[in-house]
Amino acid sequence: MAMANILENIKFANSSVSDINKHFIHIFIPNIAFLAIYILIGIVGNSLVIYIYLRKMEKTTDNHFFIPCLAVGDMLACTVCSTAAIVMFFYHTNFTHEVTCKIMWYSMTWSASGAALILVFIAFQRYKKICQPFKPSTLMDRKLTIVICLYVSSTFVSSPLLYTSGLSHLTLEQGNETITLHICERIRQDLREDWSINIALAFTGLEAFIVLSVASILTTLYLKVGLRLAKHLKTMGKKRKEGSNGNTQETESSSEVSTIKPGQSKSMRKKGAYKSFRHKREKFNQEHHYTYIFIAISGVCIVTYSPRLLLMILESIKENFWLSFYKNKSLLRFLKLLNRFHIINNIANPFLYAMFDKKFKAQLLQILQCK
After folding, report:
1. CATH 3.90.470.10 fits 2-243+265-368, yes or no
2. What is the reported pTM?
3. Per-residue pLDDT tens for 121-133?
4. Long-range contacts (CB closer than 8 Å, 24 or more residues apart) made by 30-34
5. Domain range annotation of the chain
């Protein structure tokens, strides 16, 4: 068997299943450390977001539903994906529970896709609010029901993994003995031996289509939102110029007129128009700063999930994809790190809120300073 030959070439001479598994645990120690840090940051950071937005800030806008809701989804995805990946690293070649393997692959896809679909809902709501402000919408009246439906949809989308994932059993000749390694894989080895691989590849194609669709929807909606906001700012700028260059009615006393030097009235008018424009622009940015935050969050989501999408396709169409890197430990670690790089999306949001939301930052500093 090709997979066995690859492992035999690594020369696990006279090694038991336990020894080989310990060898891979040692290789993946940096990856396990990163994942443990992800869990810590994800739980602490998203818990702070939930607490501050629900208990410390006024619930006056739709954002105070979306942000805690997204934080719950991110905390769930971060914890599930990181924990499952750590377990797979600790039992890399000695994973003996088929059902557990299937549940872990299913749970990772379900939790990650659920959080991503919430971002799509947020993007659609921002589009309706900014680009179609006068068009009636009942989205927010059914927001909780919609979120539940999104996770139900994720349940159906992830369900094929209960069939395609499982244990690949590799037989190695160790001297006079034969040992069997058990690896938990997204597409188990026996599916590659007959027509069943078509089902696994079809599911990979479906996953890739969904990921690309989510990225396209987010990009399209926020591009339209961004253009609308930019157009509004441009209109405000034109009005400022017209106000500073146009004639305005002034009621000045004779004493005031006598003290104004030639050209000073126009200069004062321009200065007043600029102050007014700056005030309106600051107010406009304050009103829409959550939109900017959600755009940044969506951008991080697309960027961080791209490596996973590529690796998912490669591991599906290329047999022994991961085993082919077993001789190069550094490259194997790096690719495994990229394979879970999408978890960054689930832990980055608290940092983005702290950077762009002054009220959240102030409340966060008070908690950190134990005030």
Report:
1. no
2. 0.82
3. 999 988 988 888 7
4. 30/333, 30/337, 31/85, 31/89, 31/333, 31/336, 31/337, 31/340, 32/86, 32/89, 32/90, 34/337, 34/340
5. 2-243+265-368
